[in-house]
Write a structure and sequence with these properties.
The complex is a heterodimer of chains A (113) and B (113). Chain A is mainly β. Chain A is built from no helices and eleven strands. With 113 residues, chain B is mostly beta strands. Chain B is built from no helices and eleven strands. Chain B has strands spanning 4-5, 10-14, 19-25, 32-38, 45-51, 56-59, 62-67, 72-77, 86-93, 101-103, 107-112. In chain B, 38% of the residues are buried. Chain A binds chain B through residues 4, 30-33, 35, 40-45, 48, 50, 56, 58-59, 90, 92, 94, 96-107, and chain B through 6, 9, 31-32, 34, 36, 41-46, 49, 51, 89, 91, 93, 95, 97-106.
Chain lengths: 113, 113
C-alpha cells in the first residue's frame, strides 16, 4: 500500500517557468489537500478538494491552480513560478468523519531562482 | 489571520521528563484537533486527536488536553524519549464536508539523552 505519492522530490525552476507537482493516493479518500511548509510559518493550506471535480481555495492560493479529475490524483500547477514559491510542498489525503486523519506524502522541495 | 498558533518555536527537555507542547486557536468552529509529528525530509505523521466535545484523550505516552473556554490545547509526552525529537504541529478541523485542516507554525522538540 503506497499511501500518498508525490513527484518529483526535488525541483529547481527559473522564475516564470511553469510546472506541475503530482500527487496520487491509493486509499480511495475523497478529501485531498496541498500544503506548503516555510520556516516559522508552519503548514499553510493552498488548495483542497472534497471529491472529483470539486476544489476550493485554502489560506494561500495565489499563484497555484488545481484540478481533480479522478479520486486518486490531485496535481498542483504553478503557472509562472516566482521566488516566493520556493518552499516544501506536501500533499495530503484525508479520511472523512470524526476520526479525520491526514496522510501526507514525502514532500516536494521546490526552489525558484 | 492565524487561526491556529503555536507560540513556542522550540522546546528542549531531558530524557525521561515530561514534554508539554502548547497550541492556541481563535476559530471556535473547529470540531476536532490533531497533533502531527514531523522528522526532517519526511511528511508529517499523525500522532493523536481530540474531539471538541472532549477535554482529554490519551494514547500511550501521549495525552492531549483541550480547554475550550481558553481556546487552548496541549500535548503531553511522558516520559520523553530521544526519538521524540521532531517538529510537532497542531491542527484544527471541521466535521462538515470539507476535510479542511488548519495547522499551526510548529514546535521543534529536542529530547536530550
Amino acid at each position: 500500500n503506497a499511501g500518498v505519492t508525490q513527484t518529483p522530490k526535488f525541483q529547481v525552476l527559473k522564475t516564470g517557468q511553469s510546472m506541475t507537482l503530482q500527487c496520487a493516493q491509493d486509499m480511495n479518500h475523497e478529501y485531498m489537500s496541498w500544503y506548503r511548509q516555510d520556516p516559522g510559518m508552519g503548514l499553510r493550506l493552498i488548495h483542497y478538494s472534497v471529491g472529483a471535480g470539486i476544489t476550493d481555495q485554502g489560506e494561500v492560493p495565489n499563484g497555484y491552480n488545481v484540478s481533480r479529475s479522478t479520486t486518486e490524483d490531485f496535481p498542483l500547477r504553478l503557472l509562472s513560478a516566482a521566488p516566493s514559491q520556493t518552499s516544501v510542498y506536501f500533499c495530503a489525503s484525508i479520511t472523512r468523519g470524526l476520526g479525520t486523519e491526514a496522510f501526507f506524502g514525502q514532500g516536494t522541495r521546490l526552489t525558484v531562482v | 489571520d492565524q487561526q491556529v498558533k503555536q507560540n513556542s518555536p522550540s522546546l528542549s527537555v531531558q530524557e525521561g521528563r515530561i514534554s508539554i507542547l502548547n497550541c492556541d486557536y481563535t476559530n471556535s468552529m473547529f470540531d476536532y484537533f490533531l497533533w502531527y509529528k514531523k522528522y526532517p525530509a519526511e511528511g508529517p505523521t499523525f500522532l493523536i486527536s481530540i474531539s471538541s466535545i472532549k477535554d482529554k484523550n490519551e494514547d500511550g505516552r501521549f495525552t492531549v488536553f483541550l480547554n475550550k473556554s481558553a481556546k487552548h490545547l496541549s500535548l503531553h509526552i511522558v516520559p520523553s524519549q530521544p526519538g521524540d525529537s521532531a517538529v510537532y504541529f497542531c491542527a484544527g478541523g471541521f466535521s462538515g464536508n470539507t476535510g479542511k485542516l488548519i495547522f499551526g507554525q510548529g514546535t521543534t522538540l529536542q529530547v536530550k539523552p
